[in-house]
Amino acid sequence: MSAEVGQGLVMVGVSGGVDSAVAALLLHRQGLRIAGLFMKNWEEADDGGCRAEDDRKDALKVCAALNIPFHHANFAREYWAGVFEHFLAEYAAGRTPNPDILCNREIKFRSFLDHAKALGADKIATGHYARVAERDGLWRLLRGRDERKDQSYFLHALGQEALASTLFPVGELEKSEVRAVAERAGLGVHDKKDSTGICFIGERDFREFLAGYLPVKPGPIVDTRGRGLAEHSGVFFYTLGQREGLNIGGIRGSDGTPWYVVDKDVASNTLIVDQGHDSPFLHSTELNASAATWTSGVALNSELRCTAKTRYRQTDVHCIVRPLNEDGALQVQFDQPQRAVTPGQSVVFYLDDECLGGAVIDSTNAPIAQWRHAA
């Protein structure tokens, strides 16, 4: 667990899933004084797309099985202001945001932490697959032992206060071990399916959901020379590297190679595509990023050689990171070209097992389609 806990209260964020249930169980077995807190971050629509009530009931059952206090908090207002409005603004600008990262920083490790402390807790704990360690007076964020489930990418924006106050009890375990522990303990969530996607979308159709908040309309799909190929259903719905949902039929002179999104222009409501998974228009060796955050709390002031990810589950790639100004702007140069580096997503930096921080991708040096030059 990597963090010492005294006799104070540990507030566990119980989500109704197996990971947080086992986090609470492991702390309980250590004889710590714990309680559970279920967070509601979204006011459900009438269609019930987000299964918050079912999850709350499962979280309550876990706390009852462990005989620990159960608390409930509604952070929907904070989520809307701190996460969802940013989510919509990014899509409106033609970018592809990652709301889970902002949710962790603003809700789970700020609003939840503040609320837990108001209830008398000294520390919080969650079921994230990550680890925290203190060395030389600095709290460090480490990858989870299970490489396939490691969630440090989503936690990179946490600072010293949050890291010093947080336990990740399942960070030392493989997912299979977590389920086995839950089953042996008789916890009913041991075989519950992992949640995927964003809670406020849930099982609903993403396009239908987004169309309820943004003024989407059909527009042209063109190739990199500006040749019209088809019509898209709304430029906001697509992201770089996407193949599905383009519905491009047989094109005269085309060899049948699949088409992929390589660019989009919100101003003209145009989607740009090219053929081939390895299209040069999808590859870049450099990116510019902004709003950098560092787990140490100290901004980068010199060139850094490290590895990075530009998306979750991506294999680390070697790179050089250069600070551009004192406001957190960075330039990242990769040793090898990277595919579909997407503005709005985060580039996250590592030294071996340690997650150093990250920044929001603004632009890359991928080739610009010819029609853009002519515009």
From TrEMBL:
Documented EC number(s): 2.8.1.13
Ligase as UniProt keyword: no
Binding site for ATP: G13, V14, S15, G16, G17, V18, D19, S20, M39, G127
GO molecular function annotations of the record: ATP binding; tRNA binding; tRNA-uridine 2-sulfurtransferase activity
GO terms of biological process kind: tRNA wobble position uridine thiolation
GO cellular component: cytoplasm
Site (described: Interaction with tRNA): H128, Q345
The keyword tRNA-binding is assigned to this record: yes
Family: Belongs to the MnmA/TRMU family.
Protein name: tRNA-specific 2-thiouridylase MnmA
